[in-house]
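Long-time lurker, finally posting.

We've been working with Protein arginine methyltransferase NDUFAF7 (Salix suchowensis) and I want a structural starting point before designing mutants. I don't trust myself to interpret raw outputs, so I'm hoping someone here can both generate the structure tokens and explain anything notable. Sequence follows.
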Amino acid sequence: MLTRHLLKQASTCRHFLLNSKTSSPFLTKSILFSSSSSSPESQSPANTFVDDKVKDQYPTGTSISIDRSALYNLPEHSHEPTSDSELVKHLKGIIKFRGGPISVAEYMEEVLTNPKFGFYISRDVFGAEGDFITSPEVSQMFGEMVGVWAMCLWEQMGRPKQVNLVELGPGRGTLMADLLRSASKFKSFTESLHVHMVECSPTLQKLQHHNLKCFDEDDNSDGVEKRTVSMLAGTPVSWHALLEQVPSGMPSIIIAHEFYDALPVHQFQRASRGWCEKMVDVSEDSMFRFVLSPQPTPATLYLMRRCKWAAPEEIEKLGQIEVCPKAMDLTRTIADRISCDGGGALIIDYGLNGVVSDSLQAIRKHKFINILDNPGSADLSAYVDFASIRHSAEEVSEDISVHGPMTQSQFLGALGINFRVEALLQNCTDEQADSLRTGYWRLVGEGEAPFWEGPDEQVPIGMGTRYLAMAIVNKKQGVPVPFQ
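Top reply, 14 upvotes:
Generated this for you. Predicted structure of Protein arginine methyltransferase NDUFAF7:
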């Protein structure tokens, strides 16, 4: 770059000298003419400029060289390592390239699913040794009850011979493994299934393959794709990065458990000039910080849509609003598939049946932290706006119906989890019984478990009322269990 700059300056000076009608003492002092004893470097084609007019004015062998003393001295480049992670460098690079802040949604998406550095991409974040525990990791009964729901829906669909059983964001594959294991006795159901795991993380795909006890069939037939089969129920299993990649043309039973909460949200804050989107920027001390957008952003269209669905008095009392365009768009995709092919979707997540204000949170090793603290080292999630899901689905087609939400406690209780835990307690050790009671409370209880006698910091916390369940189905199949 320095060489190009010098050449350009030299060329400009030469052009000025050759075309100027008067000589300039200042310019003469700035441009030095050296004798033929100059170094070989000064005689190279890149540094030598010869012209007939110059030859007439100066002796043969004279060349033009550049006085570099007046050039801007670039600061020395530091090779000292920085403490920034690769993801932090990547985020700062995006902000610098854009010349301004990025949305909270883009920040969240990069942190969770960046192909190289994303939180979900290269690690197992679930369970006691991970960053958070999900319902399937709490007890096998959760996956079993979801299996009961799926079989009931299949019955209402008329027992089709071919069904896509789709799980969005399957985590370790625990839910699907418990579902298939408990349903394996019902051959007519499992033989109709083709399991589709929608998962973008290669690390989790391998873990799911292992936990579903999958094996790849040996098939030497030309043009025939090799199948992967789960030994839990003899069902074929496929993996996809997106729901749109799951084959259509047959009914689908879609399960989205703690999937919507990880979809990126846009945050808006009420200001004197109206609703402004909250953005992530880099401060002068190179730390991430929140700022407000000075003008409307593309996500404002989704804010307007969300406000249209809410009562004016609900919006008036809020100082902040979260909207999730990807949740709205995903719901429309699900509803369109169900409308065309039949089937249904079950959505279970923590959230609200109304406008969500300010819920975005970061969890690292089961503790809440600042969401801008060391991005990529913690899970980011936000409350799910179930009212928004309902409206998004209902706008797609009159052929679908939306049911719920109801609490997870109501959902699991109506499907028979109380009877299931009693049956399991009949034939187990004392240690297993304690684990069953603890798991049961976490799934359906509220607050701290009253029976707990262990350390206070390990007391089971019930998720029964914090989590909500909603179903989207084709109207032809009637009202799904247990939403009647």
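Before you design anything, note these points.
The mean pLDDT is 84.
The CA atoms of residues 200 and 241 lie 5 Å apart.
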